[in-house]
Amino acid sequence: MHELILTHDNLAQLTGRNAAAVARALAGFPLPSLQYRALDAAREAEIARQVENTILEETLRRSGEDDPTVWVRGWGEVATQLKGLQITRATLRPQYFRGEPICRLFGHYIEPVAHEFEYDVGLALRRIIFDEFLKDGTTITEIGCGTGINVLLLFEMFPNARLIGADWAPICAEILGQIALQSGRRIEGEVFNMLTATGWQGPAEPGSTLLTVHAMEQLGDHWAAFSDFMIAKRPSLCLHIEPLFEHYDASSLFDDRARRYHLKRGYLRGFLPHVLGLCREGRAELVASRRVAFGGLYHEAYSILAWRPRG
After folding, report:
1. Residue 64 above 70 pLDDT?
2. Domain containing 272 — which CATH number?
3. Cα-flanking dihedrals φ and ψ of residue 281, to 5°?
4. What is d(CA 53, CA 44) in angstroms, rounded to the nearest whole number?
5. 223 burial via Cβ count (<10 Å: 0-12, 13-18, 19+)
6. Pairing between strand 237-242 and 208-213?
7. Distance CA 147, CA 71 (A)
8. Distance in angstroms (rounded) separating the CA atoms of residues 90 and 175
9. What does DSSP say about strands 108-112 and 103-105: parallel, antiparallel, or unpaired?
10. Is the pLDDT of residue 232 over 80?
């Protein structure tokens, strides 16, 4: 195995941008050296067998099963831990980032050198994607804001934007309040249930944008109410950074493992074809649909879908 570094050129390739745009998006955003090891064929085959065993033999929690309880408890733990601490990208790290010993990159398994590799690459990817799609938003609302890590990135990048974080766990508003207190920035916290599209009903004004990051994945195929909500509100842009099942190559064994894991977990499925159907009907405009070929051991959660309702 030999060590490599994930460069700006690599990040550009992942996100569909160029190196200059990546450098601009990451300016003033210190990142550690993103080192990883390429694996030989034997080690990749060993990892593939481990993934297969997990998919075939282990009982995995499916999205939607007791999710309000799971997330209320999880985000409550973060809120408790934050009391008396400085708000940083590290203290807002969601618990589901456990430091994968193996990641997916450009169709291969790789071994990160640092424990935080997946999380750090994910932060960089988000900044690059936010820079492309959200820089003109006067109001940015993240639905499913969780710990507020993306709101933190947004206020660092867009100091003049109105920021709203909404989640079905009311404790998230408390976390956002702590971020606002320490930053001196007004950040609004709201309660919203994506499954039923109830609670906060949101601004419907020129320049408003809606964002989800690793949140719609939990809806499985129960996204209709949220889709209707977005269409009714007609934001200037809807941006989703999510695992998109339809982006995987069904003919690839590497992708097939991610597809079967995705299905076993009950993650988001069918939403991308739905948006494409809306576009064919003239009810929406597709801005971007891109696979981002990076993820943890089992699947890829950073693919891009950007669209805007019409009508």
Report:
1. no
2. 3.40.50.150
3. -80, -5
4. 14
5. buried
6. parallel
7. 10
8. 14
9. antiparallel
10. yes
| Rg of the chain on CA atoms, in Å | 19
* pLDDT bracket for residue 207 (50, 70, 90): confident
User: How is the chain classified by DSSP, letter by letter?
Assistant: -EEEE--HHHHHHHHT--HHHHHHHHTT------EEEEPPHHHHHHHHHHHHHHHHHS--PPTTSSHHHHHHHHHHHHHHHHTTS---TTTT--TT----SSEEETTEEEEESSTTHHHHHHHHHHHHHHHHHTTT-SEEEEES-TTSHHHHHHHHH-TTSEEEEEESSTHHHHHHHHHHHHHT--EEEEEEETTTTEE------TTEEEEEES-GGGGTT--HHHHHHHHHH--SEEEEEE--GGGS-TT-HHHHHHHHHHHHHT---SHHHHHHHHHHTTSEEEEEEE---EESSS----EEEEEEE--
67-96 per-residue burial string, b: 16 or more CB within 10 A, e: under 16: beeebbebbbebbeebeeeebeeeebbbee
Token pair listed for 243: 């695992």
Domain limits at 80?
2-309
For the ranges 38-42, 179-183, 232-236, 279-283, which has the lowest average pLDDT? Answer: 179-183
Sequence letter at residue 192: F
pTM of the model: 0.92
Q: Look-up: residue for tokens 């210190």? A: 30
Q: Which candidate, 98, 100, 101, places its Cα nearest to that of 74?
A: 98
The number of distinct structural domains making up the chain is 1
